[in-house]
């Protein structure tokens, strides 16, 4: 998993400031979507809102055209885990809708995802989303100088396992980020602590736990993008980009630019 031959990109303070600009566009776009989502809208409607928001803030979407991806956000509803393509699927009361968004400012990236609960959602699904979000923040808190990369996955796994009998998706992981969206190293959402590269100021990671209400097994639909749970039970996905700085973790895709 940790190939020594591949190095982790180290960003300057100025470059991380541009990542914060991109991250703020992502944060504002996701906030707009959270405010505007309603039963009866299609996932394509959400994509239109995101497209307008990203360009309105003077940024470029990361996802559009990425390996041919046809939209600016991924919209994953209920049993869909990640990489859902916006289209004619209608959002209904009771859905959990995970939205993943990426933006570029002057060549520097931000990448984040939220799971939105629409209307009256099954309390078990609400709990699943809250646990996944808490696991994300447990992972983000580990993104500090001197810690090892696998401390992040260990914190995420521990948080989810302590909360109950949830599935942790292993096929999809977080990643290094900066001058590209997906960079070395992979950041798994599980594993033993104390392994892998030592974290240094100037590194940036996208941390993104995916948890399920049933089994962790996933499958990819015929569209070759949409990842669904094999047992058709709901999933949650939360993601932030975090920069490791001299002053600790800086969550560049939170609205507040949270420092931990
Ligand atoms: Mg993402
Ligand atoms: Mg990502």
Write a short abstract of this structure:
The chain is of the alpha+beta class and 260 residues long.
Q: Can you give keywords for this protein?
A:
about 25% strand, alpha+beta, globular, 15 strands, 5-stranded antiparallel sheet, 4 helices, binds magnesium ion, Creatine Amidinohydrolase
Task: Characterise the protein shown here.
- The protein has 260 residues and is α+β, with helices and mostly antiparallel strands.
- Helix 1 (13-36) packs antiparallel against helix 2 and helix 3 (123-140) packs antiparallel against helix 4.
- The mean pLDDT is 97.
- It is built from four helices and 15 strands.
- The strands form four sheets. Strands 8-7-9-14-15 form a five-stranded antiparallel sheet. Strands 1, 2, 4 and 5 form a four-stranded antiparallel sheet that branches.
- Strand 4 (96-105) and strand 5 (108-117) form a beta hairpin.
- The chain has a single domain, classed as Creatinase/methionine aminopeptidase superfamily (Creatine Amidinohydrolase).
- Helices cover 27% and strands 25% of the residues.
- The radius of gyration is 17 Å and the shape is globular.
- The structure holds magnesium ion (2 copies).
- One magnesium ion is lined by residues 111, 175, 206, 208, 239.
Furnish the topology, listing elements before pairings.
Blueprint: H1 13-36, H2 43-56, E1 60-61, E2 73-77, E3 80-82, E4 96-105, E5 108-117, H3 123-140, H4 150-163, E6 167-168, E7 174-176, E8 183-187, E9 204-207, E10 210-212, E11 218-220, E12 227-229, E13 235-237, E14 240-245, E15 248-251
Antiparallel strand pairs: 1-4, 2-4, 3-12, 4-5, 6-10, 7-8, 7-9, 9-14, 10-13, 11-12, 14-15
């Amino acid at each position: 998993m940790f190939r020594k031959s591949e190095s982790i990109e180290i960003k300057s303070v100025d470059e991380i400031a541009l990542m914060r600009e991109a991250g703020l566009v992502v944060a504002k776009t996701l906030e707009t979507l959270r405010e505007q989502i309603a039963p009866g809208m299609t996932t394509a409607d959400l994509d239109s809102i995101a497209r307008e928001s990203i360009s309105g803030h003077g940024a470029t979407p990361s996802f559009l055209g990425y390996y041919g991806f046809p939209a600016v956000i991924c919209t994953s509803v209920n049993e869909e885990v990640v990489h859902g393509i916006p289209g004619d699927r209608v959002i209904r009361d009771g859905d959990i809708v995970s939205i993943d968004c990426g933006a570029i400012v002057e060549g520097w990236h931000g990448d984040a995802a939220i799971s939105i609960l629409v209307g009256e959602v099954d309390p078990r699904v609400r709990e699943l989303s809250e646990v996944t979000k808490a696991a994300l923040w447990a992972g983000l808190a580990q993104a500090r100088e001197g810690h090892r990369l696998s401390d992040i996955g260990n914190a995420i796994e521990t948080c989810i396992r302590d909360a109950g009998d949830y599935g942790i998706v292993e096929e999809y992981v977080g990643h290094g980020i900066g001058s590209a969206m997906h960079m070395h190293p992979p950041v798994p959402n599980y594993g033993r602590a104390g392994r892998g590269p030592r974290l240094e100021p100037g590194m940036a990671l996208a941390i993104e736990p995916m948890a399920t209400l049933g089994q962790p097994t996933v499958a990819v639909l015929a569209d070759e993008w949409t990842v669904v749970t094999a047992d058709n039970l709901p999933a949650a996905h939360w993601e932030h980009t975090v920069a490791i700085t001299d002053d600790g973790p800086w969550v560049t895709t939170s609205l507040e630019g949270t420092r931990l």
